[in-house]
Amino acid sequence: MEVTAVATQGRYDSWDWVSSYLLLYSDTGRVWKQYRHEDGRFVGNTNSEAVVQNKLSHPVRTRFLRFVPRDWNPSGWMGLRVEVYGCSYKSYVADFDGRSALLYRFNQKSMSTVKDVISLRFKSHQAEGVLLHGEGQRGDYITLELHRGRLDLYLNLGALPKVYGRVAVTVGSLLDDQHWHSVQMERFNRQVNLTVDSHTQHFQTKGEGHSLEVDYELSFGGIPLPGKPGTFLRKNFHGCMENLYYNGINVIDLAKRRKPQIHSVGNVTFSCSQPQLVACTFVSSGSSFLSLPSAASATGGFSVRFQFRTWNPDGLLLSCTTALMWKEYRSVSSLVQPGDDLHRLNVKCSSPGHRVNDGLWHSVSLDTRNLQITLTVDNEPSSAIELWEQLESKGSFYFGGCSAMNCQRQTPAFQGCMRLLFINRQPMNLNHVQQGLLGNYNELQFDTCNIRDRCLPNLCEHGGRCSQTWSTFTCDCSGTGYSGATCHNSIYESSCEAYKLIGSSSGFFSIDPDGSGPLGPTQVYCNMTEEKVWTVLAHNSTAPVTVQGSSPRKPHIMKLNYSASAEQLHAIVSGSEQCQQEVVYNCRKSRLFNTKGEFYFPLNVKLGRDEATGEASCPGVQQCSCSLEENCIDMNYFCNCDADADAWANDTGVLSYKDHLPVSQIVIGDTNRTGSQAVYHIGPLRCYGDKSIWNAASFYQESSYLYFPTLQAELASDISFYFKTSAPSGVFLENLGLKDFIRAELSSPSVVTFSFDVGNGPVVLSVKSHLPLNDRQWHYVRAERNVKEASLQVDQLPLRFLEAPADGHPRLRLSSQLFVGGTASQQRGFLGCIRTLTINGVSFDLEERARMTPGVSSGCPGYCSGSSSLCHNRGRCIEKSNGYVCDCSQSAYGGTTCNQEVSVSFDMESSVTYTFQEPFSVMQNRSSQASSVSTESSSRAREDIAFSFVTSQRPAMLLTVSTFSQQYIAVILAKNGSLQIWYHLQTDRSPDVFSPALNNLADGRLHRIRIHRVGKNLYVQVSREAIKYNVMFHTQNHVPQPLNLYLFFNEVSHHEWELNAM
């Protein structure tokens, strides 16, 4: 039946009920699979009489259900009454034995379709096999195939050769688990949706073809070779298919009724065979094991054979005590190794990219007979060593781990699944083990392989690469431009204005205008030589272009391509205060408009998403600048070029209407007459200002708030803003759901709190400052929550973070409006100013919303609230009663506005040492933890280092940072003047050495170095060339609180440095 909901109740008139449970299902009463939904365990009862119903987020078709109690009434016992809701459905089943297929033959020679719908359900015994195939003589083909436990779709509509037109899409994972999986492929012209279970991939085919032309037949279950019965081109499907429909045609029903359209190859039956492959799951990495007795071998020695699947890179597979040694069998990345003090065997996967911890089933065979040890993995070549005497086993074989009494291992216990265990060629009955009739076990689950793919769907954002173990997943963000546990945070600033505020000078920079949003970073030039910071984006036609011979029917067309996409350009333009682009048009007998100002089609400029003509700086004005300034050479025309003179004329203007920017295309159509010619030049797009940085609102009443649409942040959210207040407490923002919520608030004069609940119970992160935060000065807050962790940053205080539970609720479900500056209850509202509110890369326009809200005003009073930067280079602006002062303590610059460089000249053998002092807030953060925070660290793995230097000496030591635990960071110039960065984070291994700049930097010129590390990713910028260097560390450890910072000018070798650093 198709089950849609389940309900539970306790034992009648008792204290017995189940408060949470797992739900398993099976077709045969064996080989169970856990039903997984986003809320983890099912919520049960709180008393014996009430009925608690749980609706299934996706229905399951099954014959058997198993309820597994996990928690129950501590004052009573387990008591369970259940009810199942659902309906029956009709099933058409075909069984394929791996050497069979069904052929659906067309009534005509070929079938050409522009729309296809193919649906089926299948369960497979193997990770490989063809489900569907069809092809045509002109190159069209479609193949649906299981490969390595995933479903691949290969499709070519024939407009291009097979090599170029083929599209390959992969969906699903672990599809060889002997459970039913649903597949649906929908195609309309070139648009295709492929869905496996609840995961959908949408894609578009290549080329211009719209129809799929298949000749003669479609094959299901395999690809028969024409003229050779029983021979197949690819590995056939081994398993069952159910309810197989091709464009509304029930293929299995036709086969069952022996209709002539269906031809059967091999042995196809219409009931599912049920192979008894009983598996067991090793749940714990510390205490799971299976102990089996060693059966006697008539030929001496012993042999062991089994299959396993896992995600973990290492773990104990098998151990036993022998007359010669203690043996362990480990899976480490792509190897399986038995190791001891005497011998070691290695078997490495020869297929590129294949590992034994890839989640697929792998077979292992060990044989110690005939005076040799032989190890075989899958179909790889065996590895063997000779023995002097026969090796015999003593006692039991331990699979996956060992008991505390018999354990001598150093390798972690195995987490994964095993099946088909043989000892001395005798099969081991796992049902007998479960019943206590054979061997012993601990922390095992029988009749199920409870492996899951934590990388499906991929929760790593922005192209991050997902890898996993049995209990968690990690994201590799290298090369993406993003960082964080899920690659959520951009490593780049959002604008040139933001780069100037952190002390950068003019140069090329990568900016990410929407931060953690979907748009990627783009490179721009930041001109910081003026008071205004200009963002400059060039295009592919920067030089003047000469045009002759164009007419309205055959115009000259130039499309302008920028380094940014259309979406990125729109984000940059809309986020800037002002943008402009210069258009220069030199003409000789090349007109723009006629005398009535109507469009004549000599010149057409495509502006942004609109089309306009001439050089209007305002929307709807089809005039050149000379007409607006009343200085055209002939005032009867709107443009100089419209005078149609034989002499050269010029119309130059600056486009500044943001909705028309940037210029994306220019069309010229009046240069085909005698003596007619035009030369045009389109300048780069130039923008200044960042509208979000000083977008602020002031809150005067505790009951007032600004409201915005519901926060869309189910899986990840990052919130950042600045605030200043004199009030002791107040809620910055809040968004509520039925049970879930998210909130940021000033909970006391010196404590900022970030709290949320995604269904695992309330979580509270707090940062305590050693100084009051209600001091009427600006303070920065950044809070983030994702499926891996949550964090809170306040000013420069140490980051607080909390890891999320491995199998907790991942989604934050909100339903109310987002309240800024207050709460839905109109209590505990914030009194003060909030500015630069950004959530998931979206900047909120507080000023606009404040203009229409009582008790709130747009902007924020005070000297330090304006858009002009009074304090430079990260200097902090502090309000005074009669003005302001700049606090340069967090800046590398000095002076009244933090814009004077602080430099020092070093002689040979001289140095400066700075000893770091931990602020009181750091010690407080380490000693007092929030009650709801169980796993937290006072700092994350990250560093920011920036400095400039001039030298002609090489080699030279520039800077080092050392800690109590003998860890260090060093920046040096090598003998050839190249820059080297040394990271020594693990004292038991040699340091990591990186060379981001290979050219000679000891050239007597000023060089700027900026080093930024987040976790395993290191980013280095050298001088203005904005060289970026990404590298993966062997460790993700953070550098502990630094002890000393050393500034050197020393000629020292690498070996000497190693001794000095120790």
TrEMBL record:
Residues 1-87 form the F5/8 type C domain. Transmembrane segments: none annotated. Residues 451-488, 861-899 form the EGF-like domain. InterPro entries: ConA-like_dom_sf (IPR013320), EGF (IPR000742), FA58C (IPR000421), Fibrinogen-like_C (IPR036056), Fibrinogen_a/b/g_C_dom (IPR002181), Galactose-bd-like_sf (IPR008979), Laminin_G (IPR001791), Neurexin-related_CASP (IPR050372). Its main location: membrane. It is a single-pass type I membrane protein. SUPFAM superfamilies: Concanavalin A-like lectins/glucanases, EGF/Laminin, Fibrinogen C-terminal domain-like, Galactose-binding domain-like. Residues 487-539 form the Fibrinogen C-terminal domain. Keywords: Disulfide bond, EGF-like domain, Membrane, Repeat, Signal, Transmembrane, Transmembrane helix. One of its GO terms (cellular component) is membrane. Residues 93-272, 279-449, 695-860 form the Laminin G domain. Disulfide bonds join C833-C860. It is found in: Membrane. Belongs to the neurexin family. PANTHER family: CONTACTIN-ASSOCIATED PROTEIN-LIKE 5 ISOFORM X1, PIKACHURIN-LIKE PROTEIN. This is Contactin associated protein family member 5.
